[in-house]
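Readers of this paper often ask what the protein records in our data store actually look like. An entry from our holdings is shown next, in its original layout:
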Amino acid sequence: MFIIGAGRIGTALHQRATERGQPCTLVTRDEGWDLLGGRPGAPILVAVCNDDLDEVLARVPVHRRTDLVFIQNGMLRPWLRAVGLLLATRGLLYFAVPSRGAPIQPGGVSPFFGEHASEMVGWFTDLELESRALDWARFCSRDLEKLIWIAAFGLLCEHLDTDVGGVCTKHFPELRSLVIELRRVGRAALGVDLPLDFLLNRLCTYSNAIPRYRGSVKDWDWRNGWLLEAATQFRVSTPVHRELLHAIGKLDEP
């Protein structure tokens, strides 16, 4: 397995693979790129920040680009469409890594979709991490669910100065109001309709599995910023989302 990116996630997965005797090569900013020029067919896990994806893609040989596996949070579909990789293998990670060098804190089943989904599930299983291969429709539902989780909990953690467990146990009414709005945006923009109670239960189940994790508002164009623009484009009113973003200084006006 090749992993591009020596940040929190890439380093944690490489460490876990090494500890379990699974062959794994970490491609850093300066080393390992020459090893990606082999024959196509084996997955290459991309574990870099969203804003570094263009740079990474430019450095990967053209004949290996369909082997890339993207595990970034946020709305990746517009970017994947733009670079001709809309059907590339993708994964949604349901575990936490608080800081670089920290061990993985499992939080649930990580789903994968695409050509290399089965291989990724097998590799995750070898690493003792729960994983499952999904079809496109089910993966799209999980994709929206994870987007809402990262956007809602990041915003509320920052605004309320608490962790994800605290959002669920102490601020559930605020969470529910925000999720109602973001769910409407997802339904309008993506055509994915997630039942509210089911969605809230899923969001809190994951959060309670990693309760001390603290989210924040980041990767703006891929998360809260994308939801904000989609709400405007599809004329979905999101006063709670806007007011919270204004409260933490991300919007000049609510």
About this structure: The chain has a mean pLDDT of 96. Residues 2-134 form a domain with the Rossmann fold fold (CATH 3.40.50.720). The CA atoms of residues 12 and 103 lie 6 Å apart.
